[in-house]
Amino acid sequence: MESRDIGLTELRSKSIGNITANSSTEEVFQNQTLRPILKFQNDLFVEVFRNYAVKQKNVFFTLPPQKKMDYIEHVIQRDIKFRNALKGMVIGLFTTKEYQEYIQNSSNLNKRMMNMVIERLKSQIQLFEYP
Fold first, then answer.
1. Which of 15, 61, 85, 107 gives 130 a disulfide partner, CB atoms 3.0 to 4.6 angstroms apart?
2. What dihedral angle (degrees, nearest 10) is formed by the CA atoms of 120, 124, 129, 131?
3. 82 with 75: CB under 8 angstroms?
4. Which residues of 22-51 are buried (b: 16+ CB within 10 A; e: fewer)?
5. pLDDT 10s digits, 45-92
6. Contact criterion met (CB below 8 Å) for 94 and 33
7. What is the pLDDT of residues 107-128, one digit of tens each?
């Protein structure tokens, strides 16, 4: 287990964002764990979303930019299977200790995680052209 945990933490970047003495445990977890994993998995998130859009009859690719933004948000909030797949891509890169922290407050951390994925995909909307 230890070698897996060490390998995972070496793969991703260090903490992203400010952590102060006043930071909540959720904020610390977000900046130390979630943000580095999301950055590490970014290219995969883009490809997974592109594949999802293609499988949904390419509707996404015909939308104007603002509707594409709305589509991303709607899909991640409403399609439970897709959302769970995205969560799995993040949770699979947790160390054992991080997972133990995560399960203490998984509901709030899931909300943070999915909001960050939504914002990450929206900020890269230009990458989602018809394949």
1. 61
2. -60
3. yes
4. eeeebeebbbbbbbbbbeebeeebeebbbe
5. 999 999 999 999 999 999 999 999 999 999 999 999 999 999 999 999
6. yes
7. 999 999 999 999 999 999 998 8
What CA–CA distance (Å, rounded) separates 85 from 21? 34
Q: How confident is the model at residue 13, as a pLDDT?
A: 74
In angstroms, rounded to a whole number, what is the distance separating the alpha carbons of residues 29 and 12? Answer: 14
Predicted TM-score (pTM) of the model is 0.91
Measured torsion, CA atoms of residues 63, 68, 73, 75, in degrees rounded to the nearest 10: 40
Q: Two tokens at 43?
A: 């290219």
> Do residues 46 and 127 lie in contact, with contact meaning Cβ atoms separated by under 8 Å?
yes
Q: How far is CA 124 from CA 43, 52, 121, in A?
A: 10, 16, 5
**Cα 36 to Cα 33: distance, rounded to the nearest angstrom:** 6
Question: Taking Cα atoms as reference points, which of 76, 60, 77, 74 lies closest to residue 127?
Answer: 60
Q: Tell me how far apart the alpha carbons of residues 21 and 16 are, in angstroms, rounded to a whole number.
A: 16
**Which tokens belong to 120?**
């990450």
